[in-house]
Write a structure and sequence with these properties.
The structure is a single chain. The protein starts with 13 loop residues before the first helix and ends in a 9-residue tail after the last helix. It is extended and about 125 Å long. It is built from 12 helices and 7 strands. The chain is of the alpha/beta class. Among the domains are: 232 residues, no CATH class; 87 residues. Helix 7 runs antiparallel to helix 8. A 5-stranded mixed β-sheet has the order 5-4-3-6-7.
């Protein structure tokens, strides 16, 4: 590139010098803009990636480190079957006992008496029975009255009424596999045929789920409508009238369109709803005007201002601080992360602390937070976090004022994990009613789990009209 020679300034007039200065200033401004753009591009290229440690990226999407080389075991594995203290525990009530005793010596053929024999080993062999459908043929007669001409049909036992040939147990199993293990209609039909020799089409499965949906809808409505459970205490209130609510949301797909699975839960009950909106109107719809005393969530705007007290999920904040540290902030984020870790450690035992002790801990945390907020970070991520906590600092340590409260929203994330798995495995829902049924089933399963009822039993009981809210 040829560089033009500098002009002889002594030969330029004042007007020409002014024009030259203005031209140089314009070029300088362009250079500053270009430098700023290049710095921004370099900053974006050098910023750390999102990982499970510094963001809400799930662990399954994080980079897995190589496993270290395993050292070769010097001897036999300890605790193996057949060695003392090892192996599977014997069943308490075996279905069959086989006693094997030798009758003669394998060497000299001498007969053994009972006194010559000792127990050498006792172990279990476990097998599955061959499962095949049990078909009950019903022959129902109708009586025709000669007197009045009316027809009377014979009564049949419960469960043998006319209609679908598939029992509630079969429907419960299909729903369990579908909504708990994310088995698609096609695979579910094939699975039932291969394992149980039960031929049932995808359409029949769909129809069976439609018939069962009102049962789940009614139970979910009962969870929302009942003012209190049998114990009557404030901690036993369902979500619709709860004192404490934990809430979160995650994305789902319905007929190729993005929607949201919301969860509202506490220690007693769980409510899932699938809506096309991620706005605060969903919260208003579910709560029906109820304002709980305490709310636990992340910082998403639609999750705010729904209760008198708010606890921010500290697990989310720890990850955000870690991201700022990875990005280069060495002033604000490290100290803030250390403070939040202290709070998390306190949250593991704050329920056992006296009220005065909890107040002292909160005063210390607030004092240390004042010192951290007085810092002046120069890194943009540090400034971003400082601005955030300046707005929401009053909601960081709410759990110390309310011992029943957790300091994180991990319980809601655990409730939504099956939704994420279902989305990844199946690709989403074909229709609104399928998404709503999924939400209702997950609500029943989550509520039943809090009562010690497993998922399959909860589904089967609901199909039979037995509410999970009924006392044990």
């Amino acid at each position: 590139m040829r560089v033009s020679p500098h002009p002889d300034l002594s030969k330029l007039s004042h007007a020409e010098k002014d024009a030259l200065i203005l031209a140089l200033l314009a070029r300088l401004d362009e250079a500053h803009k270009l430098i700023a753009e290049l710095r921004a591009r370099i900053d974006e290229l050098t910023r750390p990636g999102k990982t499970p440690d510094n963001s809400s990226v799930p662990p399954s999407q994080g980079q897995k480190p190589n496993r270290p080389e395993k050292l070769k075991r010097p001897g036999p594995r300890q605790g193996s079957l057949g060695r003392e203290g090892g192996g599977r525990a014997l069943a308490a009530d075996p279905d069959e006992v086989v006693v094997a005793k030798p009758s003669r010596c394998r060497h000299c053929q001498a007969a053994f008496a009972d006194a010559d024999q000792t127990l050498d080993a006792r172990y279990d062999k476990i097998d599955l029975p061959r499962v095949r459908p049990v078909v009950t043929r019903v022959e129902r007669y109708a009586g025709h009255c000669r007197c009045c001409g009316a027809t009377t049909h014979a009564a049949v036992p419960e469960g043998l009424e006319p209609g679908t040939p598939f029992s509630l147990n079969i429907v419960a199993l299909a729903m369990y596999l579908r909504f708990v293990h994310a088995v698609s209609y096609k695979r579910l039909s094939r699975l039932l045929l291969d394992l149980f020799a039960l031929s049932i089409s995808e359409g029949a499965l769909d129809a069976a789920f439609r018939r069962g949906k009102p049962r789940f809808d009614a139970d979910v409505a009962a969870i929302l409508a009942r003012r209190s459970l049998s114990s009557g205490g404030p901690s036993a209130r369902p979500v619709g009238r709860a004192r404490v609510i934990y809430s979160d949301e995650t994305g789902v797909r319905i007929d190729g369109r993005g929607c949201w699975n919301w969860v509202f839960q506490n220690a007693e009950v769980v409510i899932h709803v699938v809506r096309r909106s991620r706005g605060a109107d969903v919260v208003a719809e579910v709560l029906g005007g109820h304002r709980p005393a305490l709310w636990v969530s992340d910082l998403y705007g639609a999750q705010q201002n729904h209760a008198d007290g708010w606890q921010i999920c500290l697990a989310h904040q720890l990850r955000d601080c870690q991201y700022a540290i990875d990005a280069g902030d060495a002033v604000f984020a490290p100290r803030m992360k250390a403070l939040l870790l202290r709070a998390v450690m306190l949250a593991r035992r704050h329920r056992d602390l006296a009220e005065s002790t909890r107040r002292q801990y909160r005063s210390r945390l607030d004092r240390d937070l004042d010192a951290i907020m007085a810092l002046a970070p120069s890194h943009r991520d540090g400034r971003r976090l400082r601005k955030r906590y300046g707005k929401v600092r009053a909601h960081l340590f709410t759990f110390l004022d309310h011992p029943e409260l957790a300091a994180d929203n991990n319980s809601s994330e655990r409730e939504l994990r099956p939704t994420a798995t279902y989305r990844k495995v199946t690709g989403g829902f074909r229709s609104d009613w399928g998404a709503n049924l999924f939400a209702a089933v997950r609500s029943i399963i989550g509520t039943a789990k809090r009562r010690g009822i497993d998922a399959y039993q909860a589904i089967r009981d609901t199909l039979r009209g037995q509410s999970v809210l009924a006392p044990g």
